[in-house]
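Lecture 7, part B: from sequences to assemblies.

Below are the input chains for today's worked example.
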Amino acid sequence: MISGTVIKGARILGAQPQDILISDDVITEVGVGLSKAGAHVVDADGLIALPGLVDLHTHLREPGREDAETVETGTLAAALGGFTAVHAMANTDPVADSAGVVEQVWLAGREAGHCDVHPVGAVSVGLRGEQLAELGAMADSHARVRVFSDDGKCVSDALLMRRALEYVKAFDGVIAQHAQEPRLTQDAQMNEGELSGVLGLRGWPAVAEEAIIARDILLAEHVGSRLHVCHVSTAGSVELIRWAKSRGVNVTAEVTPHHLLLTDELAATYDPIYKVNPPLRSRDDVEAVRRGLADGTIDVVATDHAPHALEDKESEWQEAAFGMLGLETALSVVVAAMVETELLDWAGVADRMSIRPARIGRLSGQGREIAAGMPANLTLVDPSARRVVDAGSLASKSRNTPYVGRELPVRVVHTLLRGKPTVLDGKPA
Amino acid sequence: MTKHLISAGDLSRDDALLILDTATQLARLADRPIKKLPTLRGRTVVNLFYEDSTRTRTSFEAAAKRLSADVINFSAKGSSVSKGESLKDTALTLEAMGADGVVIRHQASGAPHRLANWIKGSVVNAGDGTHEHPTQALLDAFTMRRHLGNLESRRVAIVGDVLHSRVARSNVLLLNTLGAEVTLVAPPTLLPVGVEGWPCGHSFDLDSVLAKTDVVMMLRVQRERMNDSYFPNAREYSRRYGLDAARMAMLPEHAIVMHPGPMNRGMEIAAEVADSMRSVIVEQVANGVSVRMAVLYLLLGGNVSAIGAESSEPSTSSERELEPADTGQRRRRSDFAGEEA
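Predicted structure of the full complex, as structure tokens:
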């Protein structure tokens, strides 16, 4: 009878090979030459062990757009990407602005079982930016919501933002802001710069992001609450957050994998596979967000995994939906942008993709050290593998990855959720 | 030549001159009793117009018909498009109908790029959003050459709503290729961000530009722009950037006044300027047909053997005798100077 698991020869955060002994859902021992009678043995020779990755920003599309993604397919994609927990954004249909909807999503996640699903609650009713949603009811529900966001839309009303920041202090919540000044970005299609002018696509200026971040930093400081900035995309935003942190404001920030790797020049193809919000920015912005992530100004990488049905992307640029897939390529892209450039080591990757996102989401069972007594959420990565991205082989129900045909480094080999494999040898367990 | 004409930037100097010279020859056809050539007989040209533009559509239609192509007008109104058919499905439909060339006018910038991915035939951009309108630039250059000869070092001022103008974008690219010096003139709100990087100059002051310009091209400015605070109101716009008789008097003797139409008389251009001797606005429209014939001919005409004078096979059609005999030879030549003043 199988009792427990021994992972042999894993390089924890890139260190020398060690064995990891797991019993039930907990790591019981870490060391060299470990064995246990009857235990399932996982050969991890040459593999890097990371704490299971945690995504603060995922669109699972259920309920409402099950043609693009479901909790089942989205969480499977997450597990294959090395994630053991995702935060499901609230812009579903119906909007996750009540205890009923967040519990439905949370339950669907439990049933799927590929990774933990933590619903994000909407800040405002229907994401309309007018009236606070029942934040307390969502916090008190079985889903235990701590992250609130109108993502997809900006909480642009300064008073509503102030109230939301204040209100969530009662249950240690955080407001995750999609920073986009709406008037400055009406019908905006791509990064505003020389290229947008040439292509005749309406510009989405950096200032529209930065103006909201600056305001929200001041609001968070004023009311002494916790602000999280979603998908930071500009050099100016990094500067503002650096300044806020130096003042001791309780602000955290995320960057997406695609903003770490891709630039706005791709818009010249007019292929909406590269259409995303916030838009792909300039080379200088990419450099700045990389440096910001490296020095900790930007706390985490979050995927903003945004599945879209084929017909919503196979169209004219301005008709197409914003967003790109992220879960199954996130780690590879982060390695390409941050590890291969020597801006982060494996411990840094674990910090930005597991430890800090879990802390921001207040998930006590995720993002913990790989050590005795800790929950057995693990991702084992082959650092020497390379693969060419093929949209057809993705687990996500959608195909809108911008990396088709690109060769990316590393491969997630095994993922364990509380001791139970969700992915083995790169395949669903 | 390129397969498609999507951006004026796709054209090399040789390509552009070839089109303009071909258009010159085709223009002579207009003086003949029978205005038709058999060159594109059996070819199908689809006019796919998502925006109303009778002017451009009829110009392309006349051009294609004079080359004996079969023309299908596919307008967005009252068609499957208004029932929500996607551009891709429309493209596949046109493909199934055997379209050799698709002339597309679309409100979305980049729509012709997308279309070119989905069909095998040639795509001609007849205006996409606020991106480009390359055949307008070609007919503008054609008109300029008729009046000024070689465009090398000629100074062209393009005045008005550059931000939203596909005509301005295509003209900047083409005129730069042809060696002209372009200055964009507009209030700062109506110049695109990053215009400093474009291959042209820019100015906020019309009066300082007029005295040293050979061509002044006025762009249509929609009154509604004032609702988005691009300028305070029509009167102020007109006072600062409108071309009236007093400003026209500042132009050099030989300078011409152009406008891609439709004009807002009294807004960007005064009626007496539009109707003056310097105005070549009506001529622009007439030249559109010749230039579009040249574009369709060069993109779709394909093999030179289709042309009577160069055909290796004996001509069986009496109509072929009507072909301009030297067109085929000229296609082979790589460099042309502007040939008439």
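Note for the exam: Chain A is about 30% helix and 20% strand. Keep this in mind when comparing with the next example.
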